[in-house]
Amino acid sequence: MGRTGKLKKKSTSLNSRAARRETSPSADVDKSLRSMPRIEASSKSPAIHAVHASAGISKKKSKTKAISRAQRLRQQKNIERAEAVLDQLENKVAKSAGRAKIVKARSAQWEDLNSKNNIATKILQQAEDSDDEQVDLQQSSEGATNANRSVFAQPGDSIPPAEHGTIDEDDEIT
Questions:
Q1: 3-state DSSP call for residue 18?
Q2: Nearest to residue 142, comparing CAs of 158, 161, 126?
Q3: Non-local CB neighbours of 153 within 8 Å, separated by 6+ positions
Q4: H/E/C letters for each residue in the chain?
Q5: Compositional bias of type Polar residues: which residue ranges (predicted)?
Q6: Taking the CA atoms of the chain, what radius of gyration do you get in angstroms?
Q7: Gap between the Cα atoms of 19 and 12, Å rounded
Q8: Contact predicate 18/12, CB 8 Å
Q9: Is the per-residue pLDDT at 75 higher than 90?
Q10: What pLDDT does residue 43 have?
């Protein structure tokens, strides 16, 4: 296979995009001029704009005819109907806002209840932990006194006796 020769560098044409994107000679101007405020074009007065607003092609507007009695009554009836619909909408919006307030209040109550419940459970856990520690201490101190205890229940004991009295089989009801 043959080798291709090196491509010749083409000069950019004056009308090319790259030529247009190159820095313009005005970019070399002194930087103090760049910081100066630009003079804005004097704005045209509103009166001049008003004159030009109606210039050009515009669609002819039809002349308004006098409305017949039936048309006027129909129009009034429709306006009243629209007002009634707007009133209904306002009532619906007001009721919806009231329901939203109730829901928010109820959720706030639940949040308060949950926070109180969490606090109460923490207090109970701490109390149980301290009770467990006290029971452990009592059991260790009672271990020495259990050897001196009698087998019979004392009036202050909360533990029931180990054995019950003998059951008389003749007294059973069949």
A1: helix
A2: 158
A3: 159, 160, 161
A4: CCCCCCCCCCCCCCCCHHHHHCCCHHHHCCHHHHHCCCCCCCCCCHHHHHHHHCCCCCCCCCCCCCCCHHHHHHHHHHHHHHHHHHHHHHHHHHHHHHHHHHHHHHHHHHHHHHHHHHHHHHHHHHHHHHHHHHHHHHHHHHHHHHHHCCCCCCCCCCCCCCCCCCCCHHHCCC
A5: 136-151
A6: 50
A7: 7
A8: yes
A9: yes
A10: 60
DSSP calls for 33-57 = HHHSPPPPPPPPPHHHHHHHHT-S-
Residue 171 structure tokens:
């007294």
Q: Where are the beta strands (DSSP E) in the chain?
A: none
- Determine the residue type at 86: L
Per-residue pLDDT tens for 80-108?
999 999 999 999 999 999 999 999 988 88
Closest CA to 95 of 87, 107, 83: 87
Query: Token pair of 59, please?
Result: 């669609």
- Does pLDDT of 128 surpass 90? no
How much is the pLDDT for 165? 62
Q: What does the pLDDT look like over 24-45, one tens digit per residue?
A: 656 556 666 667 777 766 665 6
pTM of the model: 0.30
